[in-house]
Structures are given as structure tokens and as C-alpha cells.
Design a protein that fits this description.
The protein is an all-beta fold. The protein has no helices and ten strands. A hairpin with a 2-residue loop joins strand 6 and strand 7.
Length: 125
């Protein structure tokens, strides 16, 4: 049984995605309430270094680690460029974008400071 309130502090459950999807730079990530949520989602905050990229990739059923997932990106601070299926948009603080399953996408930190993003996904069942 879980005790209430459940609190996770800044810096808890952090790790690095090293050259995620062959991107540039390491992404500092904090996963929130991993495995404890009743909702079928995963919640992370990422910090991309200046010039860092997520790496161009596709989430579909051929990808065993992630599968066909939706990814919701919300820019918390900084500026970014997101390309989805060849369409590129510049994003600022407060902007969001949804990358549906099967779309090729990449996120790039355009700013002069680290880029902070909230990522919400629906992990494979």
C-alpha cells in the first residue's frame, strides 16, 4: 500500500541518456514515479545541453525497446527545434508538440542555455 502524499524531489531518480538515438550530447533525465502511477504513462523531465539533440528516430512496432508510442513534449525553458516527418517548427517556453507513433522526429536545443522539457509517453503494454 502506498503512503500519501507521494513526493519526489528534484534530482531524485535521475540518469543520463547517453547519445540517445545517436543524438549529440547526453540528456539528463528525471523519471517521476516510475512504475508507481496507475495511469498508463511515463513522465520525465529532460535537460539537453547547448547544441544537444535527441537524435532522429521512429517509434513503431519494429522497435523492441519502446514500441509504437506517442510522445508529448512540453518546453519548460529554453528554445528548441522539432522536426516531425520533415516538418520543422521552432518551439519556445510553454510550447508543446505531439509526436505520434510511426513518425520520424528529432529535437534540437537551439538556445544558449540547457533546454528543459517535460516528456509524457504511453509505454508499450
Amino acid at each position: 500500500m502506498l503512503q500519501l502524499p507521494m513526493i519526489e524531489r528534484a534530482g531524485q531518480n535521475t540518469f543520463f541518456y547517453e547519445s540517445l538515438h545517436k543524438g549529440v550530447g547526453d540528456i539528463l533525465a528525471q523519471r517521476y514515479f516510475g512504475g508507481k502511477l496507475k495511469w498508463d504513462i511515463e513522465v520525465e523531465v529532460w535537460e539537453l545541453p547547448v547544441g544537444g539533440t535527441e537524435g532522429s528516430h521512429i517509434h513503431d512496432d519494429s522497435e523492441p525497446e519502446y514500441g509504437a508510442i506517442d510522445e508529448l513534449y512540453i518546453i519548460l525553458s529554453g528554445s528548441a527545434e522539432m522536426t516531425i516527418d520533415g516538418v520543422t517548427e521552432v518551439l519556445a517556453e510553454g510550447d508543446s508538440v505531439l509526436s505520434p507513433p510511426g513518425s520520424r522526429h528529432n529535437l534540437v536545443n537551439l538556445g544558449t542555455t540547457p533546454l528543459k522539457i517535460l516528456i509524457i509517453t504511453d509505454p508499450p503494454k
